[in-house]
Amino acid sequence: MSHAQTTHGSALVAPLRARRPGPLKGGARVPGDKSISHRALMIGGLAVGQTEIEGLLEGEDVLNTGRALEALGVGVTRLGSGTWRINGVGIGGLAEPADVLDFGNAGTGARLMMGVLAGHAFTSFITGDASLRRRPMGRVIEPLREMGARFISREGHRLPLAIVGAPSPLPIRYRLPVASAQVKSAILFAGLSAPGHTSVIEPEPSRDHTELMLRHFGAKIQVEAAGDGARTITLVGQPELEARHVVVPGDISSAAFPLAAALLVPGSDIRLPHVGVNPLRTGLITTLLEMGAEIGLENPRSAAGEQVADLCARAGRLKGVDVPAGRAPSMIDEYPILAVIAACAEGTTRLNGLAELRVKESDRLSAIAQGLSACGVAVEELKDGLVIEGRGRPPKGGALIPTRLDHRIAMAFLVLGLVAEQPITVDDGSPIATSFPDFSALMGGLGAPIEAP
Ligand code: S3P
User: Fold this and answer.
1) Please, are residues 440 and 62 in contact by the beta-carbon 8 Å criterion?
2) What is the mean pLDDT of residues 396-420?
3) What is the pLDDT of residue 11?
């Protein structure tokens, strides 16, 4: 894979500090959507022919997926900034990798690829960084075993693990115990190699980028309501996937950080063009509007089956709200930055139904609670939620926050540093490169410098 590599994974410790700037002004293009980028590479690799991807996120997580595909025999070439050509080998066409596949920090990369590998009859070994090696893989292993794949893993279904793909994968009908787009996608990817219909029943709708992109490449997928808000996604197995052109929209989960900074730093007014606004990803926007935020979604349009818009945000007063548990899947990665916003709003914010945050890149419930409390915010950590007391003015700040190998914890507390009375430092900014390699430069361009202390 022809690309200059960064050094995340070799644990470069690089502290970053944010202090109060003047108002944020102007516009900036946020990096490509991480979820869609992983899927574009994998589905492009399983299609027949040359897929060209524009706007691919060139963060470490996605680059690791590209390296893994290359090790499996897919042609992966960087043509220019964000533009990549994938020479797909067709479903069933991957080859046994000569070495361990290392997904770094990326749960999505590892879990989705386990689904792909479950349908290929050879042995692969998968690992990741210290954060990924702590994360549970049983939720993917269980359905993929039912489909005929075999696994040997560490205690508690942790990485590293070995996977032996099924020579004749079986289609299954599987009810997800928790809403997870990663598990749903892994099953659908394995189902590509199985004959007949593979169905996943999800208790609550989770992001549907896999379904939209598989359709874009020619697969047949049906989605039906299954009562009580649940839905059934059914894939017709063994399709002929044909190479396609993919335009990756900006990542709303990355846009959330400059957006939050603009809402919180007095006098700010910014515009973030071409951000993905898939309705299963916009829970944060819904919540911020309820809090009284001035946010606009302009020029709505669609790109490769995904909805896109320009996001505008202006600073103003915000009030605390109760966020229902049912909204969690549509804003699952946005809770760290929402908690920071809630800490600056007026009144109490209750965030419910967040048990899944304990098994993200870090235990985010505890990382948020400890970090906010170190910055002088009154916060209560529940088993599966947070209660945050906002006082309608900036918290004290002045703390050193442990990043815990978690990009979103680092970025959320740096944004808090832009409003807090005293600067906030995160001990290691290097994980930010997994999803938002130009974070500091982009924030600096909007007028909010984030620098080494
Ligand atoms: C993702 C799904 C979510 C999300 C993750 C990306 C995806 O995880 O937190 O960052 O791309 O499918 P879960 O499926 O575990 O909820």
Assistant:
1) no
2) 98
3) 45
1: confidence class by pLDDT, cuts 50, 70, 90: low
- Ligand 1 pocket test, candidate residues 34, 65, 131, 182, most atoms within 8 A of CB: 182
Concerning whether 333 is annotated as a catalytic residue, the answer is yes
Q: Which of 33, 208, 333, 428 is catalytic?
A: 333
CATH number assigned to the domain with residue range 16-33+249-451, chosen from the 4 options 3.40.190.80, 3.30.70.3270, 2.40.37.10, 3.65.10.10: 3.65.10.10
Residue 9 scores a pLDDT above 70: no
**Between 181-191 and 138-146, two packed helices, what is the crossing angle to 10 degrees?**
30
* Per-residue CA distances from 332 to 64, 140, 155, 181, 336 (Å): 23, 19, 27, 11, 9
> Could you tell me if the CB of 37 is within 6 A of ligand 1?
no
Q: Which atom of ligand 1 approaches the CA of 180 most closely?
A: 14
Cα 303 to ligand 1 centre (Å): 21
333 lines ligand 1 (CB under 6 A): yes
203-233 tens-digit pLDDT: 999 999 999 999 999 999 999 999 999 999 9
Burial class from Cβ neighbours inside 10 Å (0-12, 13-18, 19+) for residue 232 reads middle
Which of helix, strand or coil describes residue 442?
helix
**Which atom of ligand 1 approaches the CA of 38 most closely?**
11
Cα(187) to centroid(ligand 1), Å: 14
| C-alpha–C-alpha distance, residues 229 and 218, integer Å | 27
The answer, yes or no, to whether any atom of ligand 1 lies below 6 A from the CB of 124, is no
Q: Under DSSP, is residue 300 helix (H, G, I), strand (E, B) or coil?
A: strand
Atom of ligand 1 nearest to the CA of 360: 9
Which sign does the torsion angle of CA 328, 111, 6, 29 carry? Answer: negative
Token representation of residue 2: 């022809």
Q: What is the CATH number of domain 34-236?
A: 3.65.10.10
Segments of the chain assigned to CATH 3.65.10.10: 16-33+249-451, 34-236
Pocket test for ligand 1, best of 108, 183, 185 (most atoms within 8 A of CB): 108
- The CA–CA distances, whole Å, from 373 to 385, 387, 418 equal 15, 12, 17
Residue 10: band (very low, low, confident or very high) from pLDDT cuts 50, 70, 90: very low
> What is the distance between the alpha carbons of residues 118 and 92, in angstroms, rounded to a whole number?
10
> How far, in Å, from the CA of 181 to the mean position of ligand 1?
6
Pocket of ligand 1 contains residue 332 by CB under 6 Å? yes
